[in-house]
Amino acid sequence: MTLGLINANPIVHAKKERVARCEDPHCDDAVDPDIRDPEHPYSLEQLSVLSEESITVDDKLGRILITFTPTIQHCSMATVIGLCLRVKLQECFPPHYKVDIKVSPGSHADEEAVNKQLNDKERVAAALENPNLRQLVDECLYSNEL
Amino acid sequence: MDLDDEGSNFELKEIQTLSGHTDRVWSLAWNPATGTDDAQPVIASCSGDKTVRIWERSALTRSWDCKAVLEETHTRTVRSCTWSPSGKLLATASFDATTAIWENVGGDFQCVSTLEGHENEVKSVSWNASESLLATCSRDKTVWIWEVMPGNEFECASVLQGHTQDVKMVKWHPTMDILFSCSYDNTIKVWAEDDTGDWHCIQTIGESSNGHSSTVWAISFNAGGDKMVTCSDDLTLKVWEADIEGMRSGNDQVLWKHLSTLSGYHDRTIFSVHWSREGIIASGAADDAIRFFVESKDSVVDGPSYRLLLKKEKAHDMDVNVVQWSPGQENRVMASASDDGTIKIWELATSSN
User: Fold this and answer.
1) What is the pTM of this model?
2) Chain A nearest-CA residue for B24
3) For residue B253, what pLDDT is reported?
4) Interface predicted TM-score (ipTM)
5) Which of A3, A76, B153, B295 has a CA positioned 20 to 30 A from the CA of residue A20?
């Protein structure tokens, strides 16, 4: 079951630059935007290369487990994708459902660290209050509708 | 005592549900003056809706009403709130990186001071017993100690570095000026002041000392201050003890030792734990349940162990973020708050057979 989350079409060029400069307080690794090759920024197009989500829903307990395989190894992208998934799931399911999000075992170098951040609800709440990050998440999820 | 009688049946009776917040309620605090003299019980609560609400129980109707909404001060989630020991001031910690100090001026709560300095979200705030010091902690990995000066002025006395990750909670020892902090880095740190007035970490309780294996969310002391209980994302509660006389005599070498681990009782993150005056440990967890534990009389061999007194499933519709016993005269009254946006007042009663 895929949720059709990610826009398959390329995002306009202007947004690429915004992503490259986006501060990501959700991830403690500081990424110096100057290090990125401006020709090949981490862009929403790359985010959209995400593959394979697997979702287990337990309606009786009201729990959801989703595992995903990011194709990008860098920490900040995996946590952003995880955030997008969480926001989308919150919309699809009643509020009392508990969502656990993990990267597929072996798919990320910092698997434990990423999983820990994605499932710390205080960190998630703070991240989604950050306007830059919130905007990025909204763009990932809603750019289809533009 | 009925707590010792393993045949006693307990139930958690719901007294009232307090609604009003428009987002999850992260924390609450009973005013310490609650139930003393003529003072009616008062609770402060704080929320993702960026406000703090003050609730008071009416002397006449015995029903709780919202007396005040403290808004337009914090610009982001208010994560934690705590009254000063005298009950005159309220400190609120926010994701907006500030800590606000409020005073009740003739029924009106006014923000009398704003503490700035943390680089990002402030998670917790705690007053020491004598009300001379305030501690705050943040995702910026630091713990700050502030001196309370006359005229509601606060001066930063120390910035404590040591945690390697987000610091979730700070708590002063109930009687001594020793500070405890717990963190996303899975450790608990103990901080004390030396003869020259410098604060430093005198102990780090990590996995190698039988410590937690994931984020430690909260700390609570027993009435005597010689034991503390911590709760974690690793699904356990851990009880620790220290040589209290050694601590009182200022012996820096006194360490906190692991006493007991309560595992197998929780299957989701435990966000809050609170030790009552009587010795009942209450926990609030991400499975919407509230649990109560007491020391088990049988254990003598390796030291005390604890047994589950009661599990209240579906105490709330969503995660329980905080549990707090009332400091008032009425025994076994407790408040909890949840992601479902409500606060509930409970009474732990022995059920009639």
Assistant:
1) 0.89
2) A125
3) 66
4) 0.95
5) A3
